[in-house]
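User: Please run a holo structure prediction.
Assistant: Happy to. Please share the sequence and the ligand.
User: Here you go; the ligand is MTE.
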Amino acid sequence: MAIVSRGFSGRRSSRDAKLPPGQYLTNDFPVLSAGPTPHIPLDQWEFAISDGIKVLKRFDWKTFRDLPSENITVDLHCVTRWSKLGTSWEGVALDVLMADVRTEFSYAMFNSYGDYSTNVPLKDVLNHQAWIVFKYDDAELPPEHGGPARLLIPHLYLWKSAKWVRGLRLMSHDNAGFWESLGYHTYGDPWREQRYSGD
Ligand SMILES: Nc1nc2c(c(=O)[nH]1)N[C@H]1C(S)=C(S)[C@@H](COP(=O)(O)O)O[C@H]1N2
Ligand SMILES: [Mo]
């Protein structure tokens, strides 16, 4: 008995090292969308950065795709408890999109085609912690996973990674996005299990 349980817990702890509390591993890539999948023609796509009053920067698909991109391999953690390890993406770091933007504001609200929104502290999307990704596994990002382009913030629960992202609005104070206003945590750190407001 002792040998069996020691072996079992030893194996489990090495696997759990990459898994936040309360999460289980999946090899699938589930699709979680609060509404229908919008289809955005590339000649109508744009990503805009505003301060709530004026647009500070605007990228169309060509200017966006001409920016330097990075290949990243990251783990995903959904608040519904699935985690998927070692996913590969290509995207543009928010640092690149935010270059030259001067702001006193400390928060950002990301908005999507189809009306989704999610709030994130600005410092969490800088320093190569967040990307607008357009490829998954070396292929164009499929619409159901947020194509043509989605936000990816792998260190926070996946609801922060807005699919079909269309821009961000800088804010002086934290405000609740779609899920955050329905009771989910304002920050959403999977390692601190910040699932719901009050966690
Ligand atoms: N625009 C938009 N982005 C979204 C969502 C959504 O409903 N709409 N769902 C979020 C949630 S709750 C999760 S878990 C992930 C799911 O991403 P996936 O469908 O690619 O797995 O997208 C997030 N981004
Ligand atoms: Mo989610």
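Confidence is low (pLDDT under 50) at residues 1-14.
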